[in-house]
Every structure is written in structure tokens, then in C-alpha cells.
Specification:
The protein is of the alpha+beta class. 21% of the residues lie in helices and 31% in strands.
Length: 274
């Protein structure tokens, strides 16, 4: 991974808005109705609001921001929202409003059926949405996570990519990064980009990249970067839900693997192919 953050001598605040958006897909083979429902229940428990809040708090720590306040709301019959307010850099505790909880107690009263997590920097935000999905006539279920990170100032959302990717089981990943607005250097010259970069892949660890086929579609003159990643190897046991791979006939194993690969290729391509 390249260290690309070259400091600019700016006049005043860095007014650039840096937006990182990506979808992560996890694919599972769940043939029976019971397996499908159990898979959805497993996803709801595995990625509940407690864990998603923990992930966002870890991201806050990694970018050097200070948590001011966390609020959560559970919904009936399902779903939850988490709202995190935090500021860039260190904030003197005496300057934090006394009504803020400073992140204390966010593990308490965790729910098991999350849908949305939403976090705010002082002029930026992080949102996480989860979408488990299956069809009764299909043996393949999918779980999608949408993550959006928008920052301004010196904070760079690209530095959190490896941690976020590693926090989920990721078969297909679609990432978009865009820089908007401008700031000025000390001489008054406009700056439309605060880092020198050629690809989002520059910010992903080499060990992670070796596991995926990746392509870029970048519009450099508009500071728009797009990367798609597809897992290379399918280890079938990792995609079976409550089944052992050795209980399945070799021919059926091949058919299941082909079905999984076709599903991944369609999601990766964004079109129905098979």
C-alpha cells in the first residue's frame, strides 16, 4: 500500500469533500427454505447494530477523530439506526457539550436486527446499510453492505479501506471515490485534489488485492475513481450453510460452484447474463 498523503500548504481549512462509496456482497448457497431463513437470521445476528457501531467507532479511531455522541433507535418489527457525531482530531473534553455521551455505553441494549448505521463528522458522515436477500426458488442467497464515507479537512476515507473490507465477508466489492470542490494554497491558487493518486487500488493492501480480480474505470480530469473486485477462488465449504462439503457428491459440488460463480459474475457485471 502506498503512502500518498503529501501535505499541502493551505490557506485556511481544507474545503475539499472526499466521498468514498462501496458495496460489499457476500454470497451463500442455501438450498432449502429452512437454510435460507437460517442464513438471514445468521446475518442479522452476525452484523447487528452492536458490531456495526463497533466498526464505525474503530474507523473513527483510525482516522484520528473524536466521538462526541452516539444515539441508537430500534425499530419494530425490525431494523435499527445508529447516529454518531464526532469531530476531526482531538477535542478538549471541557469543550464537549455535557449532554453528549462521548460514546459511553454504546454496547448496551444492542439489537439483533439492524438495517442502518449512520455516523457524522462535524461536516462529514459515515453511513452503513445492510441488505440480506434470498428468493424461495433460488438456492443462492446474498448479503449486501453499502458503506458511504464523506469527509473534509485532513481526514482521508481511503485510509479505512483495508479495515472495512476485512470487517465483512467480501466476494464482490464495488468502490467509488470522488473529490469535489476546491481549497486554496497559501498563494491563493485553487487545489482540486489534495493527494496524488492513480487508483483506489493504491490504498488496498497487496495481500488483499491478490485474492481478487480488479478493474478500474477512472475519470482523472473529474477526480472520479471507480474500482470493481471479484474474488478469484471459491472454497466451497465457505459458501455452504449448515452443510459439509464432503456430504455432497462431487458432481453436485461442481454444479454448486458453477452456480456461485455465475451469480458472482452477474453481480460484478451488473447485468443478467446466464
Amino acid at each position: 500500500m502506498l503512502g500518498l498523503e503529501k501535505k499541502l500548504a493551505l490557506y485556511g481549512f481544507n474545503n475539499l469533500t472526499k466521498t468514498l462509496s462501496f458495496n460489499i456482497y457476500d454470497v451463500c448457497y442455501a438450498k432449502s427454505e429452512r437454510e435460507q431463513k437460517d442464513y438471514i437470521a445468521y446475518i442479522d445476528e452476525q452484523y447487528n447494530s452492536e458490531r456495526l457501531t463497533k466498526i464505525l467507532c474503530d474507523v473513527t479511531e483510525k482516522i484520528g477523530a473524536t466521538i462526541l455522541n452516539i444515539s441508537k433507535q430500534d425499530y419494530d418489527p425490525q431494523g435499527a439506526s445508529v447516529n454518531i457525531l464526532f469531530a476531526e482530531g482531538y477535542v478538549d473534553p471541557s469543550h464537549i457539550d455535557e449532554s453528549c455521551n462521548k460514546g459511553r455505553g454504546y454496547y448496551q441494549n444492542a439489537v439483533s436486527r439492524p438495517e442502518t448505521v449512520h455516523a457524522h463528522l462535524d461536516k462529514s458522515h459515515i453511513t452503513v446499510h445492510t441488505f440480506p436477500e434470498y428468493h424461495p426458488d433460488k438456492a443462492i442467497s446474498t448479503f449486501r453492505v453499502d458503506i458511504d464515507v464523506a469527509t473534509c479537512g485532513e481526514i482521508s476515507p481511503l485510509n479505512t479501506l483495508d479495515y472495512l473490507i476485512g470487517s465483512f465477508d467480501s466476494d464482490i466489492i464495488t468502490i467509488d471515490y470522488r473529490v469535489r470542490g476546491f481549497t486554496r494554497d497559501v498563494s491563493g491558487k485553487k487545489c482540486f485534489m489534495d493527494t496524488q493518486m492513480t487508483s483506489i487500488q493504491d490504498y488496498i493492501d497487496d495481500a488483499t488485492l491478490t485474492k481478487y480480480d480488479a478493474i478500474d474505470v477512472n475519470v482523472y480530469q473529474s477526480n472520479i475513481f471507480h474500482t470493481k473486485m471479484l474474488i478469484k477462488e471459491i472454497e466451497l465449504q465457505n459458501y455452504l450453510f449448515n452443510r459439509d462439503v464432503y456430504e455432497i457428491h462431487p458432481q453436485e459440488r461442481l454444479e454448486i460452484t458453477n452456480s456461485l460463480r455465475c451469480e458472482m459474475i452477474e453481480i460484478f457485471s451488473g447485468m443478467n447474463i446466464y
